[in-house]
Amino acid sequence: MASSVVRVDLDGKPINPLTICMIGAGGFIGSHLCEKILNETQHKILALDVYNDKIKHLLEPDSLPWAGRIQFHRINIKHDSRLEGLIKMSDLTINLAAICTPADYNTRPLDTIYSNFIDALPVAKYCSENGKRLIHFSTCEVYGKTIGSFLPKDSPLRQDPAYYVLKEDASPCIFGSIEKQRWSYACAKQLIERLVYAEGAENGLEFTIVRPFNWIGPRMDFIPGVDGPSEGVPRVLACFSNALLRREPLKLVDGGESQRTFVYIKDAIEAVLLMIENPSRANGHIFNVGNPNNEVTVRQLAEMMTAVYANVSGEPALEEPTVDVSSKEFYGEGYDDSDKRIPDMTIINRQLGWNPKTSLWDLLDSTLTYQHKTYAEAIKKVMSQPTTS
Ligand SMILES: NC(=O)c1ccc[n+]([C@@H]2O[C@H](COP(=O)([O-])OP(=O)(O)OC[C@H]3O[C@@H](n4cnc5c(N)ncnc54)[C@H](O)[C@@H]3O)[C@@H](O)[C@H]2O)c1
Ligand SMILES: O=c1ccn([C@@H]2O[C@H](COP(=O)(O)OP(=O)(O)O[C@H]3OC[C@](O)(CO)[C@H]3O)[C@@H](O)[C@H]2O)c(=O)[nH]1
């Protein structure tokens, strides 16, 4: 619950209540950020999205302690003249809106590029023209592949962090060829980062760019056939959760050799609140937000999720818990992958003193407990229904 004690920033100065225009507030990250802001601060939120299912619990009923501090606006930012007015009414805009599921990048590259670049342009422009601060959500995917991935498999240099740790102000952005449409998203995100950065350099826009490294937790994406399309392909956490709930093998794309670092959403949201409340330390910076200690291959992630889910559900794991699939079969033509993603933490540490806390096992335990409670019964119902042909 937000206390009446005056909040102070990292330099001990009082923080005045802000009005925040949050675009994409109804998504995974947006829902957690709204919860945090309403519970712990006195800031007001203008929550913009086309959906509000994930923040319904914050909007109704009127008797909630934060009533009056969050207002939902059902707006598609592609075509809505109210956008500029809402940005003008706010002290800060946070743009989370995007198509950001890999299954879309190679199959809907135009929608992906429009969503991540064209639709984000007016937001940057309105903030710049009206002298409003912007926190723009980019992605770790702008780094693409590591330099090390181009070395021979047995090269000892592959063990040298200089060849794989991703640094905001030093690492190059390495994407595949144009036919590999997987990179449509990363490329659009890179260009909007460059535009926001240039607005800062040429027109004085006060901006912060966030590069999330695989934030995961409750409410991420959807379970196909329950609260999303049966044929939909969400991100890996929901794909693997879906298979565990249905007692089906988890699909490992191209052997599950790619590596990721996963950070708990609640840790990551702490970093965003620090950016919101410490503009003098966050403005003009690009921040990696991830947990370098939680690195696994996708195969190891599948094994760990299988073990955690067996504990949570009380049901033994399948004898053959995983199955290999090719990326062409799973994602279609034009898929490609980031090999490894370890965030360098120097800048966020220096500017905001932020560090992630939660181990991979612990974050999977709380997330899969949530998945089980939320979906186990619904899945049983769906699976007991006769399939229509
Ligand atoms: N979750 C992660 O680990 C992660 C990693 C890298 C980058 N990001 C970035 O963070 C942001 C949020 O990601 P998320 O995981 O919460 O995704 P999400 O899909 O759950 O949330 C995005 C929200 O934006 C909304 N939206 C999309 N287009 C819109 C439009 N035209 N008008 C209004 N609303 C629109 C969607 O309805 C959705 O609610 C994205 O920009 C994404 O690229 C997230
Ligand atoms: O059933 C599955 C699903 C996926 N994989 C593989 O897992 C790796 C991670 O996949 P995913 O979480 O879907 O996405 P990425 O990490 O590749 O990309 C995201 O990172 C950040 C963001 O920008 C936004 O969330 C997005 O682009 C990957 O190697 C898949 O091939 C699997 O084996 N089985």
From TrEMBL:
Cofactor: NAD(+)
NAD-dependent epimerase/dehydratase domain sequence ranges: 20-290
GO BP, one annotated term: cell wall organization
Gene3D superfamilies assigned to the protein according to its UniProt record, in alphabetical order: NAD(P)-binding Rossmann-like Domain
Pfam families (alphabetical): Epimerase (PF01370)
CDD domains found in the cross-reference section: Arna_like_SDR_e
Enzyme's top EC category: lyase
Annotated GO CC locations: cytoplasm
Keywords: Cell wall biogenesis/degradation, Cytoplasm, Lyase, NAD
Reaction catalyzed: UDP-alpha-D-glucuronate + H(+) = UDP-alpha-D-xylose + CO2; UDP-alpha-D-glucuronate + H(+) = UDP-alpha-D-apiose + CO2
EC number: 4.1.1.35
Highest rank taxon of the organism: Eukaryota
GO molecular function (one): UDP-D-apiose synthase activity
Cellular localization per UniProt: Cytoplasm
PANTHER family membership: BIFUNCTIONAL POLYMYXIN RESISTANCE PROTEIN ARNA, UDP-D-APIOSE_UDP-D-XYLOSE SYNTHASE 2
Stated family: Belongs to the NAD(P)-dependent epimerase/dehydratase family.
This protein's name: UDP-glucuronate decarboxylase
